[in-house]
């Protein structure tokens, strides 16, 4: 193929005449030809794909920017054509030059066409075009540099001019292609049918991440507009973007649910397998980025070896050209930049997986809660289930997404480092390998101990949360009897004696772990350098700076996998414990919906009759738990359309059990239960959501004002609503806490009436209301002339005064129906029902007379029409944005803390029991969780330090400083050792350098390493067992006392889920995450200060460069902090409603299932989860934005250090290889 290369340099690739340059044949034959051939292939695929995409309207996309960009691309085409003509005139035959430039011209023609297609068929910048123009600019710059070096400016000016014009046009086209297309145009035109027609505008509301081009995605520049907004004002929820399609909970969990159902069909369901089937590709993609980062990172020690060798030989006969030095410096910067990009993409991909896993697990746990059986609800308490959602799911997601890759990455890094160390130091490297092998069983033993402690800790935390939930649920009783201090003592017994004691033991193991992981790199370098100096300093020469600092760089690269790698094992074990807990919960028993034969029923069908049986129980036996004895036996009961069946019996006879059995809430032992049509259920203890009164009544149905008003009047709620400051739009509070028992019962009844169901199951709805109110409700709702007269009704009641109005009566005793008759038959037979009625009348005759006299003064109510077919309609969920933060329902029937009612209000009582509403100034009675804005006040930090103990904090700081100084001194000592080691006596036992023996250097180096490890261990011990324990104790104690001493008004307006979130997820952060964050922050600060000190000592001119970098760092910090604080707070405030809604759903799960409202509540859970993910995902992306820029600053520091060393060598003739090696080693660690 020699005839294709007209240049005498040949194919190269490196030019023998020009330093750091490729031959012209290699540039044209490989780079230009390969680039354009790849682009033509990619363009063909892309154009084919765009043909199947609907075109966007030209009125939107054909702006002036597009035509300018297209003009520049055409200009690049003309310049490429001119360059081809110029070359073809000089080489009028087929060669590498003509082939490459001809192919380049064809590629630019394809680019022009693709620009046009992308503009009219795509909303974002084209990745093939961006990569093509970017690579074209780089290759053109290289060719232009070569042309200038070869003096083509004078010899072939036409070639240079055309190449320059092509470069300028390509660069301008690239710049315009990088600009995002104006999304506002798509949003404004979204509703304009004249522009978009019937097609959906797919470009209108894409998130910035979806719209980001490849360069913006790599650098996270799509986050910059949000940071600019956050820098100007505190961010709010509306400032965050809608989630991408892949992160929407309904979409993200669909595939996981399918894979989990597949696991459930197997013999041993595995959460890990379901997760990997769902997110395995995304997880593997993150692993690919990690692999690239790990492999590229080992190029820097090789380049460092070349750089130190270049400096040490510069003033000798073996000196390399100065261009090589600059090439090494720039190459190290490029390698570090690629490493940074790969690492950030690795973390970004991991965060994607993390978010998706959290969404899937939380949704799966919530869905499971909607189907829990009574056995499972006995096994898993509310606190434990909340822990599954808040702690276990987070732990499994964090490990799988963030730590699992280290299971293979750490061994890979160790192997690669050891291979390079072997090439550098020979067989003595295996001394370090032996030291690492010895540490493995020790680390394994520590991991097992930490796993056992973590399992204990999770159990103690569940135990504490169970008590806390019980305390908050019964706070009225506790305050009534002044039991606060007793329960504080009970909670603290678990918190202090069990939970914190376990954390203290865990901290001791952490200190031992810290000692081992900090000492291990020193042991490895100590044994390797010592053995090399004593036994093998011939094969690779004496211990020079080139060997020492290359080895030291590799040892520093070993530090992370050696210290973090063993930590992955306990993290894996913790994740396995949490995964097992979640899996056990998801595979636990569910209610068997097949026990109830539910069939549809069409009231409007001509075939329906008034005597259709809608509820039927035949020979039924039921029990609450699978291991219990049956609570109901031989039950036979029917309820037909337009019938009112009364169920009576003494307390404990099984009336409520019968209702639960009909609804499918009990375990069916025998018999059959069938229900035709929809069901509405009124429980004995009314379940009230933390929402407006109207939302509680509508319960997901669409709003019909006329029918709604009739329901309000029939259920005697009109005057209660009139007294509310916000009317029926007033939030009635968590659990209906600001309503009396009778008001809650009537709201629950109104919910059932408004549902317009076919079957009504009413569990003693009249017990909580006054007698005259009960009469009104029976007359206008339940009775033969009430709104429900055309429906099948089963009424559990002991209000015998209404039994003469029912269709039939069933009496229960000891779980059996002892008599079933009509009222007339029962009176004539004088059986069980007759005796029950007469006993009741004899005991209540005086009060009944009093009630009858009171009703004479009742205010007249509107006559209520029955529910007719005209008012019936499909009950469809309202725009599903229902519900606010809420928790479960307590068992209290009446309100304990009634407030004073004005005298004027007492006179308006009419037929209602006293309105026991809290006086509020607006429609909202529940407080919104406050998100504080602005920077964290210094008093917060000082409070935490004081809570940790000033003495403890001071000793911790001194230990931290001593550990850092020891590490710096050890590296400085190595530099001194290597610089003084000019010659070696290989035959003596005490090998001598110029002044001291090898053992002298080893002794001091080993002592410094031991001191640093000891101080690091002391630092960890103080942090975990003294500082954080003391601070967590005070925080929990103050929070617990503050909550329990709060007035009842606080609990009336604060969702219990929000309080539980403080004591579960937030307190866990104080216990575990905060100590790790503090340790990471202070260690990073000290490391950066140490690196700056060493670099400044080695290369003083770098201190000048550090000043502008410090300003850039400060600017980045301010931009980041102003936004990250608000996003973190938004994350916290949007997380509480998830747990509040979860607890509320558990409390009302029977009602939710009776109304078949599980899909709506699952949707609401996903809606709240999506809102939280908007803040959480934005916060994670913001971290990547900052991390990439900070690492880039570190790379600039490394570039400046190496370039200044070369400049000093070139112009001052001074270069200390030891100082250069030391500075670059710290600069590499600085990144």
From TrEMBL:
Top-level lineage group = Eukaryota
Q: Which GO MF term does the entry hold, naming one?
A: ATP binding
Question: According to its record, what are the GO cellular component terms?
Answer: fungal-type vacuole membrane
Q: Per the database record, which ranges form the ABC transmembrane type-1 domain?
A: 284-574, 954-1231
According to the record, the segments passing through the membrane are: 26-47, 59-79, 91-112, 124-144, 156-176, 326-347, 414-440, 512-535, 954-974, 1080-1113, 1193-1212
Membrane topology (UniProt): Multi-pass membrane protein
The main place the protein resides is membrane
> Which UniProt keyword terms apply here?
ATP-binding, Membrane, Nucleotide-binding, Repeat, Translocase, Transmembrane, Transmembrane helix, Transport, Vacuole
**Location in the cell:** Vacuole membrane
Residue ranges of every copy of the ABC transporter domain listed in the record: 608-839
Family statement drawn from the similarity comment of this UniProt entry: Belongs to the ABC transporter superfamily. ABCC family. Conjugate transporter (TC 3.A.1.208) subfamily.
Q: What is this protein called?
A: Metal resistance protein YCF1
| Naturally occurring in which organism (per UniProt) | Coemansia guatemalensis
